[in-house]
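User: Hi! I'm a student and our assignment asks us to look at how structure tokens line up with a sequence. Could you show me two examples?

Assistant: Happy to help. In each example below, the sequence comes first and the structure tokens follow. Example one:
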Amino acid sequence: MEKVAFEGWLESISATFVTLNDQERNQSLDHLISLSGAAQLRHLSNGLETLLKRDFLRLLPLELAFYLLHWLDPQTLLTCCLVCKQWNKVINSCPEVWQSVCRELGWRIDEAIQDAPHWKGVYLKAKLRMTQLKEQEAFETSSLIGHSARVYALYYKDGLLCTVFSVDYNDELDVLVSGSADFMVKIWALSAGACLNTLTGHTEWVTKVLLQKSEVESMMHSPGDYILLSADKYEIKVWPLGREINCKCLKTLSVSADRSISLQPRLQFDGRYIVCSSDLGVYQWDFASFEILRVIKAQDPANLSLLSFGEVFALLFDNHYLYVLDLRTELISGRWPLPAYRKSKRGSSFLAGVTSWLNGLDGDNDSGLVFATSMPDHSIHLVLWKENG
């Protein structure tokens, strides 16, 4: 058939084809396929792959492809990496996707690092670590043996584990503060060893003292002011750090006016928030306003003690387990069995180790000491991070 005649015939057939319904079109195509030879079938096969199996990750602009990938869950993303080399290349070139899934696990993200394979590796390591926490495989135990009598208190700072009771210090100010069973708080000169001031007002043992700079503004303090916190069984007192003999308490915090609810000897202050556990749960105060921001009421709060409180996780324990609490959901992410240790009423015979991971794991800070406590046999029981495989 000549070209002109063929084009006329094709146009006529096309005009008729578009008037058919779907069933008639399908029957027409089936009939044409039955009349086709090998060359036509091969042409049809190649054409269908182009028409029907379009690779959107290959055809779309990268910005749109990255946007679509943001909607996929992590497991689907990993599955998509196995589809083909092109998909793996595109997915592995989007740092925002992997940063996002890392954030969902509570990982800290350094926005300056824009290397997508790096964040994919961090996610895989993070996923493994969170699974280990859930399955009680994240930690390991060890013991320090050498004391010949009971260890009453533990202190951990800058990688050093010491035996002391209710003190804090500041090298810049050259002061050490202490709380004791005589209801007093004392301020000492570190270099001279002399007592500079004695603060009174507590009516119970002073079980915890903390020295920290304020990071917020209020009518009582400014950012950069040194603040001293002291706690007893029912109250937390806030003091301006000064050497005046008649130093006045800025604020007294409690969870019950009638002293019906006891505070546990676990106090934390980072310059912005005050956190303390009680018989009802864990309380968090805003340091600028001294208002209670939240109360986390975990199961059996009277026996659940606070070790440390971060931005993403909190570390708690009772007589049997060490717990990792996800503060975003207030659910337990994992736990670790503890031996029958000797629980001090002053709260000084157990402590948290490295705590930077509580503000978000980053793939490197899940190492070192997690928890330590004294044991009846005079040893010190340690809980350490296992090396993440």
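Example two works the same way, sequence first and then tokens:
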Amino acid sequence: MAQQNGILPFQVPKTNSHKIKNKWFVKQSFQHHSPRLSALPDDQKSMEKLLDEHKRSKCKSSLRSQDGYTGQTGLSKAINTFLLFTRPYASFGIIVGIISASLIPVETISDLSPNFFLGVLQAVIARMLMQTYVSGINHLYDVEIDKINKKHFPLASGDYSIETAWAITCTVTLLSFGIGFMSQSAALLCGLLMHFIIGSAYSIDLPFLRWKRNPILAALSIVFLHSLSVYIPNFINVQRYLLGRSIVITKPVLLTTVVMCIHSIAVAILKDISDTEGDKENGIKTFSTELGRKKAFFLGISVLLIEYGIAIIVGAFSASTLFSKFVSVAGHVVLALALWFRSRSVDVMNNSAAFSFYMFIWKLFYAGNVLILFYR
């Protein structure tokens, strides 16, 4: 940092008595960086206390920006708050999964009819609404945990009231099931029902429920929500109800489901690392609270590398053309290398770094859904 007259902008001029002599200079320096410091205290101890508050404020702003909050007002703030409530990264993962599963039964270009696109769009909207329910019910039952782990979340921060959260959650649930019934597709409706039941069991605090308190049940919930309830139901929805063919569970959809189930297990392991403190305080058992952050991180990375190893083998022996084999194998090798190099620079003891890496895992999930289309 450049010096001015031998004094850094954040350096307090020193004297033999260790007191501030040039108050005007220090005051002007801090006013440039934070309007909260415009009224400079007379003693150095008070000034240092204000500095600490300023740093904590910046840290809080950084945490709020992790899920897309930017501190805006009006309409922008309302949109950002709603996005925090819905967790769009999870919804986007399901959207990508639905599109991938819907394309597997397509055999010719003529299958891509307006009815096909309308049916897929119907499935996407219905599942996005159901995922919003799952996110909403999780917010409602995790308020105390979020006050420790994610103070910027709508309920923990007070941006949404409990009544508002319940209104949104109930509305999207009714809309989702309404679209499912209108589609007249038993496969689509079964997928939505599975999503609803597992999402409820994961969060709701009732006897035999609140599966998130057990790391194994929590992992199984994530596998169902993001894999088992997505790929096969939407494959059947397109094959039987949009293309009018007999239901035949093909090898590509089975391989796709298996590979993405393994990825979902890794998501379940890695997602709670940044939430370790709040989970411990509220008696929630996760892989990171039971094994420790570093061991949980290593376990999650190992599961992902196993997934990519399986995907490479499947791509090499199952893809029908040389081009498909090359894309599938080379693509998963690239993802494995990206994972390996990215994981080496992560400080798992830092919540922000752990959460950032978790978002990176979702990007790998999106990319994997594209590569699995080459299994056919």
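Here is something you could point out in your write-up. DSSP finds 17 helices and no strands in the chain.
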